[in-house]
Amino acid sequence: MATARKKAATTTDQAGDATPGLRILKKYPNRRLYDTQTSSYITLADVKTMVLDGTAFEVHDAKTQEDLTRAILLQIILEEETGGVPMFSANSLAQIIRLYGHAMQGVMGGLLERQMQAFTDMQQRFTEQTPGMPFTPEAWTGLMGGYAEQSKSLMTQWQEQLKNAGVIFPFVAPPGTKKP
To answer: Which of 44, 89, 132, 146 has a CA 20 to 30 Å removed from the CA of 14?
Structure first.
């Protein structure tokens, strides 16, 4: 489910059970998205707006009821990455791909999620503490130093948890480099 910061209208699922705050979108075979709350077809741009507004929603296949929320969110990311300034470098995307099927896949997903949440929390605190301050790279310099320290602390905690659990994994060098 896409996370929410503000409450949407109550919707009902196929069984008729009420799910407060959750907006249901249906994806039809013709690739169209249907918003059950507004009884209208919407675009990926509309879904992006819902994400930015913090609206809780799920996307279901209209026929099978399969949850397609992640696939739709990935489509939005793909559009953002191909139009304008990308957030991910080719190297970082390759590293993410290499993690799929690896024993550390689940751990890495959780780590990335916590890092994103820590960054979002820090960004929110910065905005609250400096109302009206322009959003400039210079304004974020001090914040990013704090974020780097928090990231380092989370990594240290993660390594300690793995060590305590008896997990040992070898150094994995990036492609094209020699192992020490």
So the answer is: 44
Structure-block tokens of residue 77: 């990311």
Contact, 11 vs 5, CB < 8 A?
no
pLDDT, one tens digit per residue, over 90-128 is 998 998 888 888 887 888 888 889 888 988 887 788 778
CB 64 within 8 Å of CB 92? no
- Is the four-CA dihedral 42, 44, 46, 50 of positive or negative sign? positive
pTM of the prediction?
A: 0.65
Three-state DSSP class for residue 55: strand
Three-state secondary structure along 129-148? HCCCCCCCHHHHHHHHHHHH
Instruction: Yes or no: say if 147 and 115 are a contact pair by the CB < 8 Å rule.
Output: no
In angstroms, rounded to a whole number, what is the distance separating the alpha carbons of residues 45 and 9? 20
8-state DSSP, 84: S
Q: How is 72-111 classified by DSSP, letter by letter?
A: HHHHHHHHHHHSSS-SS-HHHHHHHHHHTTSTTHHHHHHH
Task: Find all residues with CB under 8 Å of 47, minimum gap 6, and list them.
Answer: 25, 33, 57, 59, 72, 76
Would you give the DSSP letter of residue 100? T
